[in-house]
Amino acid sequence: MSLGRPVPTGLAVALVAAALVPAALAVAGSVFLWLAVALDVAVLLLCAWDFLAAPRASDVEVQRTVEPVLSSGIANPVRLELSLSGQRPVRGQVRDEVPPGVDVRGHQQPFSLSPEAPRATVSYTLTPPARGDLRLGDVHLRLTGPLGLCARQVRVPTGQDVKVYPDLTALTREALALAVASDAPSERTLRRSAEGREFESLREYRTGDDYRTVDWKASARRGRTMVRVYQPERNQPVLLLLDCGRHMAGRVDGRRKLDHAVDAALRLAKVSLEAGDMVGVLAFASDVRAYLPPRKGREHLRLLTESLYRAEAALEESDYGRAYDFAFARSSRRSLVVLFTDLVDPDASGTLLARTLALRPRHLPVVASLLDEDLQAAATGVPASVQDAYARQAAARLEEDYQRTALTLRDSGALVVRAPAKGFGAAAVNTYLHVKSRGML
């Protein structure tokens, strides 16, 4: 086993610095020079002895506790459990090895073990910026010698692979209710969200109820006015298409557009499955990258997440026609088709328009794209220089292209969703709830 690497402590550095005082006085006499040399040699010898007497890696056992699946964009807890395997006390510092680019807090901390307290726990958090696979490295221990002059730097093999999924914990029922309320604060709108085309039950008439829902036969039997209560239909297919082409490789609000799209798609899938609908997913670029046919159940949400957590944007053109042909060659049942893409690129909008509008009236297409607030600000801001004026002109042209494409889609019966990154998932969910409450599918 390796002896580790010696690391002088702050006390050793301070003693070496103290030896500089007689060295500076050496001009007054050679005795000061010899005193400085003697002090340096003494510190070096003490440090060498302290390093040899310092605890070894075998004196400490380290175990990392972390969930095998982490959530991107939020702080995930990690614990390092240290236990004493020998009889003598051990003190020092522990540092966990985390990949670069991951926001980590508290992964390096001091610890102390003794026969009276043979165990210690070091807790910290890490926040992965994106989905995918993450490799946590070894744990590094700096074990301080008995004199406190030198420490032994050792590495404990604890390498571990974890998966980073999109954050689904934020979409609780309360969070969903807030998302709906943010778009529909009025009582009238909230009441409409419970409407549908599938009969649920009968209840007594209340002021404000639609007379068309009155059940006259039931009213006659019971001697009071009764109305039918409807709920949104269940078991309807919802197909999520994710564009993984070059349009989704750009960054908005510090993350790739595709990352925002995957988060929104999985949140929409969660809500749809909880509502009793069937959800499928298709990820594509120039060809189909992943496909899961519409299914129901909680287990299906896990499969959807598994299929998308490694999705990456490729620097190639997306083939919308191939994606649509692949999806609907396997099912012709009327579906809600939600396409997560970028409508800013005018070159790709022509093909997208033609193939998306061809879905009508058999299916109900929804095109969801991110609102780049920086681009919008550049298109409407007052330029401060010639360069800003050129940037404003280019941004305004892109904004006009988007508005033209969106208007064509809406005029043809498709739905268009555009929202900033922070509200993208909620906007997609609210569009689905609107479709279900109005019986549009």
Automatic annotation (TrEMBL):
Entry-linked InterPro entries:
DUF58, vWFA_dom_sf
Taking the record's annotation, the residue ranges forming a coiled coil are: none
Q: Which Gene3D superfamilies match?
A: von Willebrand factor, type A domain (3.40.50.410)
Which stretches make up the DUF58 domain?
202-352
Known Pfam families for this protein? DUF58
SUPFAM superfamilies in the cross-refs: vWA-like
PANTHER family, A to Z: BLL2464 PROTEIN, SLR2013 PROTEIN
Protein name per UniProt: DUF58 domain-containing protein
